[in-house]
Amino acid sequence: MGSSDTSSTGGVISLLADHPISRRWTKSNSPVTFLQLDGFSDTSSTGGVIYLRLLHQDTTASTMILTARSRVAPLKVISIPWLELCAAHLTAKLLRVTAFAVRAVLFRAGEVDT
Fold first, then answer.
1. What confidence score (pLDDT) does residue 94 get?
2. CA dist., res. 87 & res. 21, Å (int)
């Protein structure tokens, strides 16, 4: 990725358009060999998002948004480090709940033991 590709906002948006992230669960014919949950937090919106990344036996990978959560920033003046901490805490709680739900679904499907 060269600096000329990202010199303007339009360049970044065109790069992102080439890598769509599905918001729909699609079943693959290839078995899943690795499952990964990734959480990202954003201070500007005091929120977080959880992505599910699946690696399949045929060496393909798929990524999808599982869930997201945001909170309205308080009206009073708060430091940026405090807002970062609040966003990270929100994302950590969201990741814990999501991991529990994913594990419960996989347990019911017989994919994992206890």
1. 93
2. 22
